[in-house]
Amino acid sequence: MGGASPGNWAAQSPDQGLRRTFGTPDQGRDILKVISLRAKTAAGAFAVTVAALLSTATPAQAATYNVTDNCDVPWIACSYGDLWLFYNSKEIAVQDGYYKSAYATFYANVDDHWGTSQYQGSTLTTYRYVFGSGGNGNGQYMKNNAASVQNCAPNDNYRVYYSSGFGGTSQYFAKNGPYGDCNITNLISALKNNNASSHFA
Questions:
Q1: What is the pLDDT tens value at each position of the chain, 201 positions in all?
Q2: Are residues 35 and 92 in the same domain?
């Protein structure tokens, strides 16, 4: 059986192996240097690209504020609200001619008593509606949390609705009386602590 004779085999030197692959040893080393340089250049370019993307990406921003009157929201054009929603029932809300309950006030159509959001530049700005002016419930969110209502509008009638977007059961509140008396009325049982929107009627 044929085979290589131990006497005819000779180990190759490192330079001989390099010459067989790349030519002369110097040529092989030059080629390896070029390959290494290209790899480093590509890696550097990738790192620069990633850094540029990270530096130009704008992080999401958000700001939230609490207001007791929807006319305090910058993008709502009105002076003051004239539909008052009280935290307490009327027996507690007004005593001896004084307000004992916190309240929120609205003007025009408010499709969600939760609040409203809008982008101001790159910032998503949110205004939440809360009860204010001191008294019981001060600072609490007012959506689905009111027990009585008074309409102080001289010309506008209102309805308060069970659901956001003016849906579900509603209750009618007539405009202010002829002598400027803002009569306070309890919400019906279906709407007490379930009052999510309000609308001109």
A1: 444 444 444 444 544 444 444 455 555 555 445 445 454 545 555 554 444 544 455 556 999 999 999 999 999 999 999 999 999 999 999 999 899 999 999 999 999 999 999 999 999 999 999 999 999 999 999 999 999 999 999 999 999 999 999 999 999 999 997 777 788 999 999 999 999 999 999
A2: no
For residue 50, the one-letter residue type is V
196 is a domain residue: yes
CA dist 31 and 23 (Å) reads 10
Find the angle CA(193)-CA(181)-CA(174) to the nearest 5 degrees: 55
Residue 170 phi/psi, 5° resolution?
-140, 165
Write out the residue range of the structural domain in which residue 129 sits.
61-200
Q: Which of 117, 136, 36, 37 is nearest to 73 (CA)?
A: 117
In a domain? residue 143:
yes
Q: What is the pTM of this model?
A: 0.71
**Domains: count for the chain:** 2
In a domain, 52, yes or no: yes
Q: Which two tokens stand for residue 33?
A: 């240097």
CB burial readout 167-184, b (16+ within 10 A) else e = eeebbebebbeeeeebeb
Instruction: Count the alpha carbons within 13 Å of 191 in the hemisphere toward its beta carbon.
Output: 28
Does 37 lie in the same domain as 87? no
